[in-house]
Design brief:
Blueprint: E1 9-14, E2 17-22, E3 27-31, H1 33-43, H2 48-59, H3 63-79
Antiparallel strand pairs: 1-2, 2-3
Protein name: Lasso peptide biosynthesis PqqD family chaperone
InterPro entries: PQQD (IPR008792), PqqD_sf (IPR041881)
Organism: Amycolatopsis lurida NRRL 2430
C-alpha cells in the first residue's frame, strides 16, 4: 500500500515531525516523528510492511505494534480525507 495525498494537501517537515495542511478546509494536522517515518516511507512507494519495518528499526517496537500503528495512521489520514482512495 503506497500513499498519495490529495492535491490540496501540503506536507512540511519540522523538528518535531511533520505538519499537513488541508488547503481545502484550512485545517492543520501534526504528525509526530514516528508518523513522519510512516508517511515518508509510504509516499516513497513503500508498503505497510516496509513502514512497520522502519518503525521497528528506529524505535525497537514489536512488529505487531508497528503494524497496528501504521494501520491506525493510514486509517486516520483516510478518515480526515487527506489521501486518495
Amino acid at each position: 500500500m503506497s500513499l498519495a495525498f490529495r492535491p490540496n494537501v501540503s506536507i512540511v517537515d519540522t523538528d518535531y515531525g511533520s505538519v499537513l495542511l488541508d488547503e481545502r478546509k484550512g485545517r492543520y494536522f501534526q504528525l509526530n516523528p514516528s508518523g513522519r517515518i510512516v508517511v515518508r516511507t509510504l509516499l516513497e512507494g513503500g508498503d505497510s510492511e516496509e513502514a512497520a519495518g522502519a518503525l521497528i528499526e528506529e524505535y525497537d517496537v514489536s512488529r505487531e505494534r508497528a503494524e497496528q500503528d501504521v494501520t491506525a495512521l493510514v486509517e486516520g489520514l483516510r478518515a480526515a480525507g487527506l489521501v486518495t482512495p
